[in-house]
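Exercise: predict the fold of this chain.
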Amino acid sequence: MENREWFNNLAAEWDSMLTDEKVKILTDIIKRLNIPENSSVLDVGTGTGVLVPWLKEVVGFGGRLVALDYAPEMVAKAREKYGSQAVFLVADVHSLKFSDESFDRVICNSAFPHFSDKPKAMAEMSRILKKGGRLHIIHTSTRDELNKFHSSLDGPVSKDMLPDDEEMAVLIREAKMEKIEIQDGPVFYLMTAGKC
C-alpha cells in the first residue's frame, strides 16, 4: 500500500484524531505566524482541511486561500466541510501547478515527513513563495515524539521522519530560503523560513 492509498483510507476518521489539546496547540501556532490580512496562503497537505477555518479568518475576505492534498478522499472531505472558504485541489507538492512567487505564505501542517522527495518538495514550496514570503512547517508534537509515533505504525508511513535541525537547514538553504527559525518543544514543532 502506498502513502496516498493509506491516507485515502483514513479520510473518514481523520477528524476524530483532532483532540482538544491539538486544537489548542494549533490555535496558538496560527497566532504566532502573524499572517497579515489579505495575504495569499497555500495550505500544503491540508488533509480534511484542519487549518482552513483558522487561515480563512486570518486572511479575511480580501485574502486568497488555497488548500491542497494528494489524497483525493481527504480533499473531498475538506471540500464537503469548508467548500466556500478555500480553493481545494488534489495536487502533489513535488510538482505544483502555480506560477513562481504566487503566495505570501506556504503552510505545511503534519505533512512534511510524508513527502517522498523532500529536497524537491522544499524547492517547489520555495519557488511559489513571493520574495519576503515565509514557509511554515508545523506539527502538534515535538520531532522526537512524531518520529517515534511514525515508527510505531504499521504500513507505509512507518519510515516517514521529520529531519533533524541540521538536515532541515540544508534543505532550506538549497531551496534558496534563509532566516531559519526552529522551535522544537515543549509541545509542538514549528519551523519558519523566509524566501530570499
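Check your answer against the key: DSSP finds seven helices and seven strands in the chain.
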